[in-house]
Design goal:
The chain is α+β, with helices and mostly antiparallel strands. The chain has twelve helices and seven strands. It has three domains: 8-79, no CATH class; 82-179; 209-346, Alpha-Beta Plaits (2-Layer Sandwich), CATH 3.30.70. The two termini are 52 Å apart. The model is unreliable at 1-7 (pLDDT under 50).
Amino acid sequence: MGPVPTSETDFEGATATAGRALQLMSEHNVPATPQNFETWFTFALGTAPELTRIINILVANKRAFDAETNRSLFLSYVGGEAHWTAKQVKISEELHGLVDTARSYLATSIADSRDHVAALGGVASQIKRDLESREIIEGLVAELSRSLTRATKLEANFSASLQELDKIRGTLATVEQRSRTDALTGLANRHALDDFLRLRQIAAMESGQSLSIFLVDVDHFKQFNDRFGHQFGDQVLRLIAQVLQGGMRDEDLAARYGGEEMIGILPGIDIGAAVAIAERIRQLIASREIKRRSTGELLSRITVSIGVAQFVPGETLASLFERCDRALYAAKRGGRNRTVTELELAHGSAAA
C-alpha cells in the first residue's frame, strides 16, 4: 500500500491521496480491490513515472480498465512478478559479488602466507651462531607452512563449493526455462506468452508502434493421429514449431497456444508485413514432407491455416485474439492451407 503516515501532516496527505485514488477508480469503473487500490494510490501519489505515463495513455485511448488491464498494471508497475524478478536478479548479482570478494581475500591471504614462509626461511638460513633463535624461526616457519597447507585446502574446498553453486544456479536457470517452455514443441508456453504479450501491448500503446499476431492451426490434424498414431502427430507439431521459430526474428515470440494451435507475436510489425511473414511460414510448411524413416515412404504432406490481426491501441487482448481467431476459421472455411487477415473479414472477402 502507500507510505505509512509518521505524523499528522503525513496522515492527512495519505488520506487525501487515498480519497483521490478512490475517486479516480470510480471515474474509470475500476473495482475497489486491494491490488487495484494499491495501483491507483501509487498513481495518485505520483511517485511512479512509468505507471503515470501508461495510465494516461490508456485514458487517452479510452481504454476500459477491465480485470486483465488492472492485473497487468499491478504486475508490471506496482508489486508484481516483474519487480520480484528484478529483485531476484539483484540479489543474485550481489551474492556472486560477495563470493568473488571472499575468493579474492582468500587468494591474497594465501599469497601473503607464501611470502611470509619464504621470508622467514631466508632469515633462518642466515642464522649460523644463535641456535636458539634459529630453532624459534624454524618453528615459526613450520607453523606458517601448516597454515599455508590449511589455507590451500580451504581454497580447494571453496573452489569446490563455488562449482556446486554454479551447478545450482544452472539448475535453477534450467528449471525457470522449462517452466516457460512447452515440453513437446520447445516453443514458449502460455505463461511465457501472456507475460510477453502483456509487456508488448503496453509498449505498443506507449510508443505508437504496431503490434501484430497470427494464429497457426494444423489442417486435418485429427486425421494424422487417427491414421498414424499420436507419435506421428507429435512429430508434425514439432516440425511446424521448428519452421515457425525459424521464420521469426529474435525480438518476436513463437508460442504454443493450445492443442495443435501455435501463435506468432510480432512487435513493431504492421498487418501487411505480418501477412508476408505468415505466408512465408505457411509455404515452407506446405513444402515439407514426412517420410517413414525405415523405408523412405512418403507418409503425408502438411498444411496449415493462418489468421492474422493487428493490435488496436486501447483494445483488450481478448478482443485482439477474437479477431485473429475469426480470421483463422475463415481460412479453414475457405479451403484451408491459406492465410486470412482481419481486414478480409471486415471487407467480406473471406470465404463464408
